[in-house]
Design a protein that fits this description.
The chain has one domain: Orthogonal Bundle (Cytochrome Bc1 Complex, Chain D, domain 2), CATH 1.10.760.10. By secondary structure, the protein is an all-alpha fold. The protein contains 6 helices and no strands. It is elongated, with a radius of gyration of 18 Å.
Length: about 110
């Protein structure tokens, strides 16, 4: 009986840790967002400053002043060499990325 309780407690703890590690913290910055790190940093850089022969800066004035609908469209449908993420990211994840691109970097 004690072994069963211990097993259940360990499984519950592992489940809680797994769920919490996949949930982004409330109001993270763009570069802290796990969705950004997994899907965007490879081309746009870990600091979102852009990469030579990669994606442009997401913290520059052209990106931060672009209309939100345009950013959503680019993320969802791709543009030039950027792939589309409509089937890979949820609308909520795309909206969060757009909000984080549009908001000034936190210091």
């Amino acid at each position: 009986m004690k072994t069963l309780r211990l097993t259940i407690a360990i499984c519950s703890l592992l489940f809680a840790l797994t769920v919490s590690s996949q949930t982004p913290p409330p109001d993270p910055t763009l570069t802290d967002n796990p969705v950004f790190q997994k899907n965007c940093a490879k081309c746009h850089g870990k600091t979102a400053g852009g990469r030579h022969f990669g994606g442009p800066s997401l913290i520059s004035e052209p990106a931060t002043t672009a209309p939100a609908d345009e950013l959503r469209n680019i993320i969802a449908n791709g543009k030039h060499h950027m792939p589309k993420y409509a089937g890979k990211l949820t609308p909520e994840e795309i909206n969060t990325l757009v909000d984080q691109i549009k908001s000034p970097p936190k210091k």
